């Protein structure tokens, strides 16, 4: 017989059992915040490590099967007890080949259980104990993902958004057994971060407008691959560079290289190496075109002396971010192609920590009330400013003066009288040293123009532009321009892709497991005292004078307006030194492509000028002693 309990008895039972039930209820763990930042309250050694494959909508190797993306993920164990965590994503092609960080560290499964034991970079060691998950994504066509790399093609650019869709329940993923993996521990916010190629993938994801991407931190990334391989219509990286890079990042997988060869050959046939013009091929590799779609905040970092990914990548995107009022922050260092974790570590980790806490954890720690820009105008001297170019910068026209056979001059007004011309012959074999050395000595292959010795320091911030009225003896001509400081200064000595540096002993950030620590070796500058310094440079194909998308042959002897943007700079010319402008034809030390036809180039010095972004504008230039006439 079923027992019958009266209403009164039931109420009495509830009164007795309710306290016991409440005592058994366990509150979900939460992050701990102190001094405006999350604290390391969660373990690293016991963190949950997973490997997931995320489905996509593309078939980049054309084998009839959609590509899948492998994701290695680490998250606090507390995320299984109700802790909701954001995800920091580094999408990279390098985890199985070139590695990441100063030590070129690779992913490693040391015990063969199919899960990562060694995680490149410090993000996992530092942020997982503070209540974050970290995901290392194998870019399509590399490591454990299927497909073919296409070097910033549409499939690669969709990989980050695909992972974010999976995290937010909009896309399927599975484990190594094929069983579905559904995320129930995510707080709905993700970041993408990375240097170089990884930075490009982060910016591409931002430009897709994918929901759930709260912030991106692109470091020294190329954001327009046309600008990475060409400048002003001139090829700087040719010979099917994209296909060569694809083979480099798949060097661990000869079978993949064989399968992908037809895809890469097609890329090589369409990249326009033969002319250097901007074609529709480059649209999907140009994120500037899609900057209006960005919903995430952006923290840009770049080296002003980066000769690998040149600094015009950050400057153009910074202007686009301003146009669309994207929440933003910028670091510009007097460094090369290097991560700030390696050259300004303590400040970087603190700033990145607060940035992620604000955008991913919702902690109002004041990071968005600070000046937007950190910039290093001189070696080791960091400043903060509200914007970049720094406020109160104005373009100052410095007009060329013809001189005689030696260097001409610079002045703040055009020369009076009839036009005066000077000519030189393009020398495709001339190196940069020969172009800028001994500016007062006559040269058949360049023109030089010098200011008087400066009476006080002169600061520039932005993109200088050389505006020439010029003609060619042929239907073609290349134009090169160099801005030089003549006189003693201390600079970070250059290498091929940046500055010389010294590797220092390890420093540790974050917690460790037996197989993985957060210890990495930073670097230090190796400054040198010099007597002249190439400040910035620029090149342009005369046939692309109006557009990089369409070549227009020059009529021999006819004058044209030739505008050459130089690479952006933030720099201080020292009192007592001179500003130099050097005009050349082919620029071998900048470009992979040179003209062999050796045209004679003639410059009208009366109307040609340098537009220099000077802090303080015209008044500062006058105080520095640039003559009025």
What report would you give on this structure?
By secondary structure, the protein is an alpha+beta fold. The protein folds into 2 domains: 34-271 and 279-297, Rossmann fold (3-Layer(aba) Sandwich), CATH 3.40.50; 393-513 and 520-623, Galactose-binding domain-like (Jelly Rolls). It contains 13 helices and 34 strands. Helix 7 runs antiparallel to helix 8 (254-270). The chain is globular, with a radius of gyration of 28 Å. 49% of the residues are buried. Mean pLDDT is 93; it is low at 1-23.
Primary descriptors:
629 residues; 2 domains; 11-stranded mixed sheet; 20% helix
Weakly predicted, low-confidence segments: 1-23
Mean of residue pLDDT values: 93
Give the overall shape.
globular
Structural class: alpha+beta
Q: Provide the spatial order of strands within the biggest beta sheet.
A: 7-3-4-6-5-8-9-12-13-14-15
Percentage of residues in DSSP E strands? 25-35%
Biggest β-sheet description: 11 strands, mixed
CATH domain fold name of the largest domain: Rossmann fold
Query: Can you give the helix content as a percent range?
Result: 10-25%
**End-to-end C-alpha gap:** 114 Å
Helix-strand blueprint:
Layout: H1 7-24, E1 33-34, E2 37-38, E3 48-55, E4 68-75, E5 85-92, H2 123-127, E6 133-138, H3 154-157, H4 159-167, E7 173-174, E8 186-195, H5 197-208, E9 213-219, H6 225-229, E10 230-231, E11 234-235, H7 241-248, H8 254-270, E12 297-303, H9 312-323, E13 328-333, H10 340-343, H11 345-361, E14 373-378, E15 381-385, E16 393-401, E17 408-411, E18 421-425, H12 432-436, E19 447-450, E20 458-462, E21 465-472, E22 478-492, E23 494-495, E24 498-499, E25 501-503, E26 507-508, E27 519-520, E28 523-525, E29 527-541, E30 560-565, E31 569-573, E32 578-584, E33 600-604, E34 609-615, H13 617-623
Parallel strand pairs: 5-6, 5-8, 8-9, 9-12, 12-13, 13-14, 17-19
Antiparallel strand pairs: 1-2, 3-4, 3-7, 4-6, 10-11, 14-15, 16-17, 16-34, 18-33, 19-32, 20-31, 21-30, 21-33, 21-34, 22-29, 22-32, 23-24, 25-28, 26-27
């Amino acid at each position: 017989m079923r027992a019958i309990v009266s209403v009164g008895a039931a109420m009495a039972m509830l009164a007795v059992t309710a306290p016991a039930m409440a005592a058994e209820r366990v509150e979900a763990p939460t992050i701990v915040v102190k001094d405006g930042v999350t604290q390391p309250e969660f373990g690293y050694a016991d963190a949950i490590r997973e490997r997931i494959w995320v489905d996509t909508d593309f078939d980049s190797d054309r084998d009839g099967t959609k590509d899948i993306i492998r994701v290695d993920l680490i998250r606090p164990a507390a995320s299984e007890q109700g802790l909701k965590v954001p995800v920091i994503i580094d999408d990279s092609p390098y985890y199985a080949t070139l590695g990441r960080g100063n030590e070129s560290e690779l992913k490693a499964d040391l015990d063969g259980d199919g899960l990562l034991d060694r995680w490149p970079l410090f993000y996992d060691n530092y942020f997982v104990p503070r209540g974050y998950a970290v995901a290392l994504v194998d870019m399509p066509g590399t490591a454990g993902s299927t497909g073919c790399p296409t070097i910033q093609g549409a499939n690669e650019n969709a990989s980050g958004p695909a992972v974010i869709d999976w995290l937010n329940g909009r896309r399927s993923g599975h484990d190594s057994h094929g069983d579905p993996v559904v995320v129930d521990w995510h707080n709905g916010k993700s970041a993408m971060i990375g240097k170089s190629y990884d930075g490009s993938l982060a910016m591409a994801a931002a430009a897709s407008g994918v929901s759930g991407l709260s912030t991106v931190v692109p470091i020294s990334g190329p954001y327009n691959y046309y600008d990475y391989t060409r400048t002003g219509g001139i090829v700087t990286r040719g010979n099917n560079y994209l296909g060569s890079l694809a083979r480099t990042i798949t060097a661990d997988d000869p079978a993949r290289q064989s399968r992908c060869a037809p895809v890469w050959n097609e890329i090589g046939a369409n990249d326009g190496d033969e002319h250097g013009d901007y074609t529709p091929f480059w649209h999907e590799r140009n994120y500037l075109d899609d900057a209006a779609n960005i919903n995430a905040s952006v923290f840009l970092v770049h080296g002003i002396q980066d000769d690998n990914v040149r600094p015009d990548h950050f400057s153009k995107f910074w202007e686009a971010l301003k146009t669309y009022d994207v929440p933003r922050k910028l670091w510009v260092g007097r460094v090369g192609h290097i991560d700030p974790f390696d050259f300004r570590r303590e400040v970087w980790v603190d700033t990145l920590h607060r940035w992620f806490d604000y955008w991913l954890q919702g902690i109002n720690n004041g990071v968005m009330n600070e000046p937007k820009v950190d910039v290093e105008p001189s070696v080791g001297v960091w400043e903060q400013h509200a914007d970049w170019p720094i406020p109160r910068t104005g373009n100052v026209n410095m007009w060329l003066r013809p001189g005689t056979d030696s260097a001409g001059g610079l002045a703040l007004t055009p020369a009076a009288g009839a036009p005066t011309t000077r000519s030189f012959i393009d020398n495709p074999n001339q190196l940069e040293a020969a172009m800028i050395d001994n500016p007062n000595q006559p040269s058949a292959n360049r023109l030089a123009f010098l200011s008087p010795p400066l009476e006080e320091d002169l600061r520039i911030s932005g993109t200088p532009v050389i505006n020439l009225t010029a003609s060619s003896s042929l239907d073609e001509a290349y134009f090169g321009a160099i801005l030089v400081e003549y006189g003693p200064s201390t600079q970070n000595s250059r290498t091929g892709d940046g500055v010389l540096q010294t590797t220092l002993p390890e420093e540790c950030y974050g917690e460790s497991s037996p197989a993985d620590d957060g210890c990495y070796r930073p670097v230090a500058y190796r400054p040198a005292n010099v007597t002249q310094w190439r400040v910035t440079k620029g090149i342009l194909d005369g046939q692309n004078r109006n557009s990089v998308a369409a070549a227009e042959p020059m009529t021999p002897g006819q004058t044209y307006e030739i505008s050459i943007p130089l690479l952006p700079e933030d720099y201080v010319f020292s009192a007592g030194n001179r500003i130099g402008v050097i005009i050349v034809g082919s620029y071998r030390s900048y470009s992979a492509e040179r003209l062999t036809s050796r045209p004679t180039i003639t410059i009208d010095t009366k109307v040609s000028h340098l537009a220099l972004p000077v802090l303080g504008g015209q008044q500062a230039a006058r105080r520095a002693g640039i003559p009025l006439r």
